[in-house]
Specification:
Layout lengths: L14 H17 L5 H4 L8 H9 L18 H14 L4 H17 L2 H12 L5 E4 L15 E4 L5 E7 L10 E7 L11 E7 L5 E6 L8 E11 L4 E2 L5 H14 L8 H13 L6 H26 L5 H26 L9 H13 L10 H11 L4
Parallel strand pairs: 1-4
Antiparallel strand pairs: 2-3, 3-7, 4-5, 5-8, 6-7
């Protein structure tokens, strides 16, 4: 019997990607902001436009995009190494993250020549930051149930009305790629969906940040009140939005960012154990390291599929589901272990880092697709539903 795991072939990073790792570490040693671990734990939700532009100066924003647009034209293996090093260090990468990971590749693959010529150089220069317009208040986890609508006018332009929610960094970004309905109703499911590039400075766009349990406001709700879009805002063909967004989500779900969100905490805790010569938690450390090695191998296998030009949607869903479970287990386990002896003096930065991740980790299984939706995709991929 064939299983989903049979689709994962062992993959190794090529020598060129490993050589790239040394360059990244040298850059981080020179340019990484001096942040305590509770700030580094935010990493790909830490917005620092200046740091992102320093990366862009090295050619490492739009790292997989063609050189003709200012990209480094590296493969997905090189991006894997770049992401791995940035997240392990806890670098603040939110400013360019979405544009580099998915918006740029999406425009490069499905966009018009005019869109590629305009947006891709700006992404690679760190001058255009993007956010994702998928989730909606009344659609829950059902991405196909979006109700935000764009209506075509006689002059070929569009009027956009509706709203999006849980949009990361929208208050800081220049553009949103929004999945909206251009025909039919939410009951028509995948049919009638299209993607648009929305300039967030346009009249009729309102962005309202949402404060979370940690006191941060990296999520926002975005309102569109008859926003006027020109005909060039449509990405690809009208009605092709579902096919495009599915390919986009493969980029979003497959990388190390779905594994490494809690690694700053794990590293801080292990360092604390070393300093206190505390051997009693070796089994827990060993379990986390083993899980990390297995998840990294799965993510590398998906990366190899991307390098081969494939769209491993179901495989990415599996890695994302397993990876976010791992990310949530780390703060839960460490918090419990830190509380075993209330008389023990703990490092305040370690406690703050653990507190932050304990509060925010519940969102890890929501962003990029909820656990329930992903498991439905995996079941369909196995022919079980």
């Amino acid at each position: 019997m064939t299983t989903l795991l049979d689709r994962f072939s062992p993959a190794q990073l090529p020598a060129s990607a490993e050589a790239f790792r040394a360059d990244i570490r040298n850059f981080l040693a020179a340019e990484m902001p001096n942040l305590p671990p509770e700030r580094r734990a935010r990493s790909w939700m830490g917005f620092d436009a200046e740091f992102s532009r320093k990366l862009a100066g090295k050619g490492w924003v739009g790292v997989t995009l063609p050189r003709a647009y200012g990209g480094a034209q590296m493969d997905a293996f090189s991006r894997f190494v770049l992401v791995e090093e940035l997240l392990t260090a806890g670098a603040p990468v939110a400013a360019h993250w979405i544009a580099d990971r998915q918006s740029g590749p999406l425009i490069n693959k499905f966009g018009s020549d005019a869109q590629r010529d305009f947006y891709l150089p700006r992404i690679c220069q760190g001058k255009a930051f993007f956010c994702i317009g998928m989730s909606e208040p009344n659609a829950g986890s059902d991405l196909a149930g979006v109700g935000t609508r764009a209506v075509r006018r006689e002059n070929g332009n569009w009027t956009l009305s509706g709203r999006k929610i849980w949009t990361t960094s929208a208050q800081h970004c220049h553009y949103m790629i929004a999945l909206v309905r251009t025909s039919g109703t939410p009951q028509d499911r995948h049919a009638g969906l299209s993607q648009f590039i929305v300039d967030l400075s346009l009249p009729g766009v309102t962005v309202r940040p949402i404060t979370d349990l940690t006191g941060d406001a990296h999520f926002s709700e975005v309102f569109f009140d008859e926003v006027q879009l020109d005909g060039g805002a449509l990405i690809g063909e009208e009605g092709s939005g579902w096919t495009q967004v599915t390919a986009e989500l493969a980029f979003e779900r497959s990388g190390p960012e779905r594994i490494y969100s809690s690694l700053v905490l794990l590293e801080s805790w292990i360092n604390w154990l070393r300093e206190h010569k505390e051997p009693s938690h070796e089994q827990t450390v060993g379990r986390f390291v083993t899980h990390l090695a297995a998840l990294r191998a799965l993510s590398l296998s998906v990366t190899a599929r991307l390098v081969a030009g494939e769209s491993p949607v179901v495989e990415s869903a599996l890695v994302k589901d397993l990876g976010t479970t791992f990310e949530q287990e780390i703060p839960a386990a460490i918090e419990a272990l830190l509380g075993e002896d209330p008389r023990e003096e703990l490092d305040r930065h370690l406690v703050r880092t653990c507190s932050y991740l304990s509060n925010i980790s519940s969102t890890f299984s929501l962003r990029g697709g909820t656990r329930e939706i992903l498991r439905g995709m995996i079941a369909r991929g196995l022919g079980l539903r």
